[in-house]
């Protein structure tokens, strides 16, 4: 780790004076409104109460490629693991969605094929009915003439 640039990321745990819910923010950056209830911190009495500061995370820059990463102090790469877990979950969801789309495409194709068959059968039935009506009128018509 000594070969990479790194610095602590101080975060503070705060509590909204309006809704009472806790939230976290960077120490050097003050949120303008509560992330829970959207209460705007406009006057000094409405600013959130700071409950503590933590230097638990380090921002590390890889000097060879410039890629930043966030590390939990103590050498545990929890955030990296969480990120990998999220990426894996997203990939699984993508596969699931792709599977649904494939099934939908197959079902749509089958639907259109069945609809075409039903339309053809309906047209054939109409044609047979017309022929039957002609035959009936011929025989009934010829029976009336006798």
TrEMBL record:
Organism superkingdom: Bacteria
Q: Which residues form a coiled coil?
A: 104-138
Key word Coiled coil present: yes
Q: Which UniProt keywords apply?
A: Coiled coil
Please report the name of this protein according to its UniProt entry: Uncharacterized protein
Species whose genome carries this gene: Paenibacillus larvae subsp. larvae
